[in-house]
Amino acid sequence: MTLLDTYKRAPITIVAGEGCELIDDRGRRYLDCIGGIAVCALGHAHPAIAQAVAAQAQVLVHASNLYHHQPSEELARELVTRSGMKAVFFCNSGTEANEAAIKLARKWASRRGEPARRTILACTGSFHGRTFGALAATDNAAYREGFEPLPAGFAFTPFNDAAALEDAITPEVAAFIVEPVQGESGVHAATAEFLQTARRLCDARGALLIFDEVQCGMGRTGSLFAFETAGVRPDVVTLAKALANGLPIGAMLANERSAGGFVPGDHGSTFGGSPVPCAAALAHLRVRDELDLDARVRDRSAQFFEALSELASSRPEMLGEPRGRGLLIGVTVQAPYDSGAVVGAARECGLLIGSAGGNTVRLAPPLIISEEEVSRAVALLGRSFDSAQDKLRAIGETGLSRIDTW
Ligand SMILES: *Cc1c(COP(=O)(O)O)cnc(C)c1O
């Protein structure tokens, strides 16, 4: 063991990628419907990304935030223009973007002369990252256990329960943080009513509304920002995963109301806004415009939902109706079938998918996925379910526990 044992890695070694396919060290090709967990929006080895990275690396890799540099300022301008926000803070990951948002909310309250306004309110089923602040806002016992004490001043309210928000958004709440589509807990979209109520109550009671779009942003729901699909504007948006199509970057976008929460010295990151990831993100934005990617995502999403719904009605004992938004799709696997076993069976069939909370299979393919590839993915998924069923029969009821070793 030279890599610390923090992941349950599948027993394949990936050496290359091409479009929506990954290739292992034996030359086997896999149709990639998890996309590096919602990261590779333009697929693998996209020439525009490769070219932008190479060109930037030949000019300037790092200069630090002691100075201005062009890629970060150009990317900030693009994000501000496209989001209607006021300013951007760059970091290197999703959890860091959420740390920045949490710190901004508290500092913002302090600056307004409300030092008692400390609470960060999050939702049941939330996932905001693995560092301490983001973890304190994450409702997943397995991720929290053994790391206590977590930072104080965090509270939870039931996801999609608009009535409960009335009581939860108290005068102590500095910010309410919510994923417009929860990813890790099993792909659950927030309802318009829930988000509208959150907006109204945050305004009325002086709290900030933060959308964690680390997974569901950057075009995944069929608009660049998930808040456009949701029809509710937050004060702060966090981005990461797909922003630079695979290079490490995170961003926190703050609107007019909240941006003044930070002044020089309040927060920082050595690598944040580094030129190479910013150049990749700029190339990503350029390509998505050229491809009219939002329209494509909406078409492919409709195709996926229809085909998965058909698959569900042909195997009602195994899987539920698809849910989610755009190309972030979850399908519940019914007991005794297990989502982990289905993911393993799919891999053996040449399809890469993920599992998420609540015995859910998660699909987050590259947004460039073609009509033919969607059909192929659903056909392979059908075969994976059949194969999982055969294995379950072969093992028999008594051997059920062996399934998760596939
Ligand atoms: C992945 C994810 C994060 C954490 O991002 P990292 O880059 O892994 O730190 C935070 N929030 C959401 C919604 C995510 O899906």
CATH architecture of the largest domain: 3-Layer(aba) Sandwich
Q: Terminal Cα separation, in Å? A: 21 Å
CATH topology of the largest domain: Aspartate Aminotransferase, domain 2
Shape: globular
The profile of the biggest β sheet is: 7 strands, mixed
Within CATH, the superfamily of the largest domain carries the name Type I PLP-dependent aspartate aminotransferase-like (Major domain)
Describe the protein's architecture and organization.
This protein has 406 residues and is of the alpha/beta class. It has two domains: 14-32 and 293-404, Aspartate Aminotransferase, domain 1 (Alpha-Beta Complex), CATH 3.90.1150; 47-290, Aspartate Aminotransferase, domain 2. Helix content is 40%, strand content 17%. It contains 14 helices and 17 strands. Strands 4-12-11-10-7-5-6 form a seven-stranded mixed beta sheet, with helices on both faces. Strands 1-2-3-15 form a four-stranded mixed beta sheet. A four-stranded antiparallel beta sheet has the order 13-14-17-16, covered by helices on one side. A hairpin with a 2-residue loop joins strand 13 (323-325) and strand 14 (328-332). The longest helix has 25 residues, at 371-395. The chain starts with 13 loop residues before the first strand and ends in an 11-residue tail after the last helix. Residues 93-95, 98, 127-129, 179, 183-184, 212, 214-215, 240-241 line the site of pyridoxal-5'-phosphate.
